[in-house]
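Handout, page 2. Input:
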Amino acid sequence: MIESHRVEFKRELSAKLEAEVVAFLNSPEGGTVYIGLDDRGIPLGVDDIDTTQLKIINRVKNNILPSTLGLFEVRIEEKEGKQIIALAISSGTEKPYYIKKNGMSPKGCHIRVGNSRQEMSQNMIDDLYSSRVRNSLNRIVSPRQDLTFAQLKIYYEENGLTLNENFAKTLELLTADGKYNYNAYLLADNNGLSMKVAKYAGSNKVDLIEIAEFGYCSIIKATQNILNKLNLENITKAKITSTLREESRLVDPRALREAVINAIVHNDYSTEIPPLFEIFSDKMIITSTGNLPQGLTKEAFFSGVSAPRNKELMRVFKDVKLVEQLGSGMLRILDKYDRSIFKFIGNFIKVEFKFVDENINDTKKDQDVSKKRPRNVQETTNKEKSILLSNSQKRIIEEMSLNKQITIKDLAEKLNYGTTKIKTDIKYLRENGIISRTGSTK
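Output:
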């Protein structure tokens, strides 16, 4: 790893931290500041790393404007036995960003040029400010002000977090004059947002057989419900030949999950057009409103560069563990599929998952068969046959793939079934070679 337009090395935490962060915020692709590396990338380590990490978070939050909420994350990494700090910064959507004490001036506004940082000219600052999006969600007043957030508080509590009485201000759910903004509206218990999952009989939109609405509730709850619905529709197919057994889902579950969350969290809600999820006989299509953010190239988009359109929503999704590391979702999708599944059409982005093996990356095809098959592929001497799985059996497989140590009791509680049914389903899955358990089942 060397310094570049997206990577900066620092021996230690210095007074120039804010300037480096501002430069990445104002750049099209963002970047990462590594603290504890010399100019050649040799690890030096960081003394009192926990205190240093806290100082970085406080300085980035308090010393830079506009708000950096949801635009950065701090990670502790280990290189050659020494701990260093990685400060990952997304490209901001409210440029120009500046150091608070220096104001919106060349001394306060910086940009990344090659592997160095430069002050912006006043003309560049003025141009960026004049083109700043005026209708960002944190400036749009919620159409309702009688909002409640019981659902949001439950999701935070489930993740060990507490929303205090000042949470609306902390999460930037208020306009400058103290009214609930559109982010608050989307996160509230009741709103007018409806996201639809449409199912068609064939490969086109001629024969609509089902349309399910998810919404009019917190966008977090709606997201969970959509993920559950698509997970059920993403059926498991099992095939046994004379030499081996293969079991797979119509769409890779992790890639599908990431595409759904990306569509919801990055949708341009200022258009009042929500994401759409469609299921056909041969594919699933996810459509979100809003093209790539200004300055973000397709190459940067596909490389996992994080430039969240709705940084306040991104912060909340990350808090409740729907989003992991910034920019990681795209990499998980492209780990299983190639770029051709993405279509940029006008002001919309479509992701099309075809139910065919050809959609898998060639690099994955070139791996040996044991790596391509799911972990529960087993040898068998049965004649070729198909195995049908119930919804409960599919859900058991999903939970066991996420947690190898899960017990029958845990499965019963998680899936809301009795232990007898769980045992019966597990017996069926074992007898058909779909799972193989070792150790205690208690």
